Amino acid sequence: MAHRILVVDDDAHIREVICVAVRKAGMVVTEARDGSEALANFALEEPSLIVLDIGMPELDGLDVCREVRKASDV
Q1: Tell me, what's the pLDDT at 2?
Q2: pLDDT by residue (tens digit) across 2-41?
Q3: CB contact set of 48 (below 8 Å; sequence gap of 6+)
Q4: What is the pTM of this model?
Q5: Of 45, 41, 53, which Cα lies nearest the Cα of 8?
Q6: How far is CA 27 from its chain centroid?
Q7: Distances (CA, A) of 67 to 16, 21, 25
Q8: In angstroms, rounded to a whole number, what is the distance separating the alpha carbons of residues 7 and 29?
Q9: Which CA distances in Å does 1 have to 15, 28, 31, 61?
Q10: Distance, CA of 54 to CA of 33 (rounded, Å)
Q11: Sheet of 28-32, strands arranged across
Q12: CB-count burial class (<10 Å; 0-12, 13-18, 19+) for 73
């Protein structure tokens, strides 16, 4: 079974570059454009790993990380 990776970045170009590399490595990718979308996708997809941009507006990467860590060791 392929690992699920959640890629979170507000910059579409950076997100796309990371997603291409992760897919080439044979993993399943889910994308999120912001922290709120990341938390929603995390709950639905249960990823093995999150590649998370720290400097996002509103709900930043550190806030997302704190929320994820309340329920998971990801």
Answers
A1: 80
A2: 899 999 999 999 999 999 999 999 999 999 999 999 999 9
A3: 3, 4, 5, 74
A4: 0.93
A5: 53
A6: 13
A7: 25, 27, 28
A8: 7
A9: 23, 10, 19, 28
A10: 12
A11: 28-32, 4-8, 49-52
A12: exposed
The label of the residue with tokens 């998370």 reads 52
Token couple for 68: 């994820």
Letter for the amino acid at 21? Answer: A
Q: Which residues of 40-60 are buried (b: 16+ CB within 10 A; e: fewer)?
A: ebbeeeebeebbbbeebeeeb
- Identity of residue 69: R
